[in-house]
Amino acid sequence: MSYTFGPEQLDGIEEVLQNDLMNLGVHSVVLIDTAGNIITHLDNGEMGHDIYSLAALAAGNFGAMSSMAKMIGEKEFSLLFHKGIKENLHFSKVSTDFLLVTIFGNEVSLGFLRLKVAEAIEKIDKILEPSLA
Amino acid sequence: MAFINPKKKEVQAKIVYYGPGRGGKTTNLEYIYKRFKNRIKTDMVVIKTHGDRTLFFDFLPFDVGKINGYDIKIQLYTVPGQLKYDATRQLVLRGADGVVFVADSLTVRREKNILSLKNLQKNLTANNKNIFTIPLVLQYNKRDLEKQGIPILSLETLEKDLNSQLKVPSIEASALAGTNVALTLKNIISLTVSSLKKELT
After folding, report:
1. Residue A52 is nearest to which of B4, B61, B91, comparing CB atoms?
2. 133 residues of chain A, pLDDT tens digit each
3. Domains of chain A listed by start with CATH number
4. Does any CB of chain B come closer than 8 Å to the CB of residue A52?
5. Tell me, what's the ipTM?
6. φ, ψ dihedrals at B165, nearest 5°
7. What are the Cα distances from residue B13, in Å, to A12, A57, B76, B100, B190?
8. Which neighbouring-strand residues pair with B65?
9. A60 and B12 in contact by Cβ < 8 A?
10. How far does the CA of residue B150 sit from the closest CA of chain A (Å)?
């Protein structure tokens, strides 16, 4: 069993991520599914992260947090944020089966990032809609 | 569930090593990592507990090469085998395209193998998958222990206990020595890829 998106959908997602997040100054942005597969990945060319391992861990981490949410009576935590000294990670759910992982430095404010992530997700939802219906 | 990227001509699929605790799942991945280092561009990810057991999962990405013009990237995962980690096992199984069940040949582990296989069936069902239809290979691990005089289960017993209904490929192996670790991997990759292949034409 497998699923796919058309090249125009993938182009559309990349355009949204570029305009809304990369242009904001984030270092790297990855859209993954909850199995840990990478749908698309953009970075500023300076990072060189091991993106496959990062996706596997991000999916696992988000899954673990969702299970914890259910244990305390929440349906889910729709976003997660990890703060580092120089780099920070922001996770946000996209529709039911996808996650947007953003890696950004301290020059980007968390509040503004959250706003832009929310906007980007709304646009990505629209692009994915025909495939998920 | 595998993701096919038509733009990058790439397929990502997930294979999970399942089985009872201390059965050799992580050892399988460690051997693959050592043996196929040229195909693996990154470090193996391990999340272990204090006592050196797998806590969440191990992860190893593996490039198979091209099929029908598509780059096939296989993500290998192990689950924690200990009973108490059922929630994490279910999580790691999410989206699995193929499963290797690593059974422990030690006579004393007979019951643990059967329970773990039942647990696999339950957790696959919870992920909307069917143990009878998902690509699955059984590995009877630790066959080398017989030479050291340690009592191990006969192949007939293992087949009867684990494979009488499933009737999937089963392979004798020693993950520690590396015997048939690659063969197991080859079998599960080929079953998994052929189940995806019709969608790549």
Report:
1. B61
2. 688 999 999 999 999 999 999 999 999 999 999 889 999 999 998 888 889 999 999 998 888 888 889 889 998 887 889 999 999 999 999 988 899 999 999 999 999 999 999 999 999 999 998 887 6
3. 7-128 (3.30.450.30)
4. yes
5. 0.79
6. -100, -35
7. 24, 16, 9, 14, 12
8. B72
9. no
10. 37
Question: Residue B160 corresponds to which tokens in the numbers above?
Answer: 């009867």
Q: B65: closest CA among B107, B28, B124, B11? A: B11
Q: Going along chain A, which residue ranges are E strands?
A: 2-4, 28-33, 38-43, 79-83, 87-94, 98-105
Q: Is B64 inside any structural domain?
A: yes
- Which residues of A are less than 8 Å from B14 in CB distance? 35-37
Measured in angstroms, the CA of A63 and the nearest CA of chain B are apart by 6
- For residue B27, tell me if it sits in a domain: yes
Q: Is there a contact between B18 and B101 (Cβ–Cβ < 8 Å)?
A: yes
At residue A40, the 3 state secondary structure works out as strand
A30 touches chain B (CB under 8 A): no
> For B39-62, b where at least 16 C-beta lie within 10 A, e where not — what string?
ebeeebbbeeeeeeebbbbbbbbb
Interface test with B, best of A4, A62, A68 (most B CBs within 10 A): A4
**CA–CA min distance A91, chain B (Å):** 17
CA distance A87 to chain B (A): 20
| Closest residue in B to A35 (Cα–Cα) | B95
Give the CATH number, domain containing residue B25: 3.40.50.300
